[in-house]
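Bit of a strange request maybe. I'm writing a small parser for structure token strings and I need a real example to test against, not something I typed by hand. Could someone generate the tokens for this chain?
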Amino acid sequence: MQLFRNKSMVTIVVGLVVTLAMIGFGFVPLYFGITDQSLALSEKRLDLALLQSQLKQSEQSDNESALKELDDDLNNYFIDRSEFLEFISTIEDLATEYAVAQTIELSEFPETEQLVFEHPINVMLSGRFDQVLGMVDEMENQGYYLNFETVNVSRGGSLPSIDSGDTTAIKLSLSGKSFWRQQP
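Reply from user aminoacidic:
Good idea to test on real output. This should exercise your parser:
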């Protein structure tokens, strides 16, 4: 029985040694390999995040210049509050060029802190149809953003005739908004 016990003990000890050897030579290197792979994967993720961040910054700087150009174009549509007389003179010059009588109504500017604001405008034109239409077309091409919400056309009587052309006058009333900006 002693022999059986010794054999059992030897078998158990050999089994433990084999199990420990498997753990020591098999699982421990496998564990360190997995840990190394995990660290390498974490570094790759960090590199990828850094590259994505650099790409976003590069795209933002490219977009920033494009947005700056758009902002400059957009600012050109607003009339500077300091260029009030120039705006009125431009419309008067167009009226003279197209031989159209004009009246412009702009109320006082409100006191506002906003950099860009809208302001009501009324423009009344009278003259021959083709002249009034030409002036309206030219006003649209001036680059000012004017949003006319109401347009009224009526017969305006007759004009003195220099030639045998059309002497019928029309009256055109435009009411809407003009868009202004203040100097920051």
